Structure formats: C-alpha cells, structure tokens
Amino acid sequence: MTTLSQAGELGLLSELERRGLIAGVEHDAARVGADLVVTQDALVEGVHFRLDWIAWHELGFRAAAVNLSDLAASGATPEGLLVTLAVPRTTAVDDVVAFYEGIAETGVRVIGGDTTAASEVLVSVTALGRSPRVPGRDGARPGDVLVVTGPLGAAGAAFRRRQYVRPPLRLDEGRRLAAAAHALMDVSDGLAVDLAHIARRSGVRCVVELAQVPLAGGALLDDVGFGEDFELLAATAHADGFPVIGRVEAGEGVALLLDGEPYELGGWQHFGEAGP
Predict the structure, then answer these.
(1) How far apart are CA 210 and CA 187, in angstroms?
(2) Considering the entire predicted model, what is its pTM?
(3) Which of 55, 191, 205, 250 is deepest in the core (most CB within 10 A)?
(4) From CA 233, how far away is CA 255, in angstroms rounded?
(5) Maximum alpha-carbon separation in the chain
(6) 18-68 pLDDT per residue, tens
(7) Is the distance from CB of 9 to CB of 270 less than 8 angstroms?
(8) Of 52, 175, 70, which Cα lies nearest the Cα of 125?
(9) Which of 215, 200, 117 is nearest to 157 (CA)?
(10) How far apart, in Å, are the Cα atoms of 266 and each of 222, 240, 254?
(11) 156/135 Cα distance (integer angstroms)
(12) pLDDT tens-digit map of 140-175
C-alpha cells in the first residue's frame, strides 16, 4: 500500500485525475464559467503555523493573503472571502476578533463561512474573484523568460528566527502579468517545486540562474527553497520590468544553476514530516 508520504501531493493528484475523481486542478484556482475564479486553502495549527510564533491578528491576515495570492496568480480581482474558523472552546473572544481584524486589513470583505469547536485551530478560506484571462501553469513556451514579482527567501529567513513574515499582496501585478503571460502561478512551495509545476504541465524545461534571483533582506540562497514567499512566477515573452531569473527551453524538468553549475534547492512537501 502506497502512503501519502510516499506518493506526495503530485502523486496523489495524478492518481485522482487518472481515476476521473478530480479535474482542472492544474492551476492555482478553479475557473467557473466565463470569468469567476475560486480558490480554497487551509491552515492547520502545528503544520502551517504555531500560535507562539504568530499573533491572532497576523494569522487572520495570513489566512486571507495566501488565498488572495492564488487569485493574483489568476489575474483576478477579489469579490469576497468565505471563512471557516475552528478553535478550542477556551479561545478568547478578543483573539477571534483580532483574527477577523487581520483579515479585514487585506481590504477584501468576509461574505460568509462558519465557526466551530475543535481541539486545535484550523482555518479554511475560500476566495472568490473575477478574471478575464487565467494563464494557468500549462502555457509556457520555449523562448519565454521566467520572471518574479519581488524578492524571495523572506519566509525561510524568518522561519530560522522562529517568526513569520506577512505574505505580500500582488493583485495588481497579477492582473498586469495575466494580460500577456503564457504561464503564471505563485511561489508557495519553494522556487524549485513551483518551477516543476510549470515545466510538467507545459511540457518544457525551466532553467534558472540563481545568481539572478532577487533575495529578501537577511535571506540566504537556500531560503528560496523554503516556500511561502507568495511572490508571482511567470513565463512570458516580455519581462515588462519584472526581474528575470531564467528562461524556458524545449525539453523537460528544471535546471537550477549557480554561476553555471547545478545547484539543488529543497521545497515544501505537503505530506512530508509536519512542521509549520
């Protein structure tokens, strides 16, 4: 019997697709009808966050922002959030209020959801938006350049200090890139892992020169493999002012180079060992 830790997220999704149980999961968000875009993400205490490292207010902002990042990667304008919050019965009302105040700081309103009791904190957010064009992950072409919307590695650097940083909101940049990019997604699982999504879905080879990757202040190169930066990554014909970190070639897979030599980066594995 194959376990989830052996199959990994990609293996699980491939098996579900093969059996016809899921469809259209190759992008950051689901497109419904002409322009409606829907995405959902969950944060689990002890897996994605620790309450001794993050305040309730910041947890609320983070829960909303990681979903809005998927809308940004779809070129979407947000219309609202559905929020489910499961917490222990001993949780202070002021903490829950602070959580929702953090969500409100994103500028996107909560329009529904649920609250329930649980032994640990679990947050599930569904974000809805509209986009006239969703590039997805499967359109990268040889000759494209690979660009990002900002510096990487901040989340990894903060985690080494037992802290979290606020995810950036790249909604404007997402709409700008979505107008012309051939492939577009956010950097949530680490640069190498997310590049592999584009390479696999598009049937191309992604080559990155790591010396060209902009690093956040205090970040080391290996922090780029941590994930949770939530900058956008695009394959596009023209850089349009965004930092160029590599190129798309004919072939398959991902090549990470440092001064021309191969370099390995780790990445987040959803069914690996738990740890926020």
Answers:
(1) 15
(2) 0.90
(3) 191
(4) 16
(5) 56
(6) 888 877 666 678 999 889 999 999 999 999 999 999 999 999 999 999 999
(7) yes
(8) 70
(9) 215
(10) 8, 29, 13
(11) 28
(12) 999 999 999 999 999 999 999 999 999 999 999 999
Tell me the two tokens of residue 248. Answer: 């798309």
Residues 6+ apart with CB under 8 A from 58: 102, 164, 166
Cα–Cα distance measured from residue 19 to residue 12, given in angstroms and rounded to the nearest whole number: 11
Query: Would you place residue 233 in the very low, low, confident or very high pLDDT band (cuts 50, 70, 90)?
Result: very high
Rounded Cα distance between 147 and 163, Å, is 27
Tokens (6 digits) for 5: 């830790």
Q: Tell me the pLDDT tens digit for each residue of 162-213.
A: 999 999 999 999 999 999 999 999 999 999 999 999 999 999 999 999 999 9
* Torsion angle of the four alpha carbons 32, 36, 37, 39, in this order, in degrees rounded to the nearest 10: -80
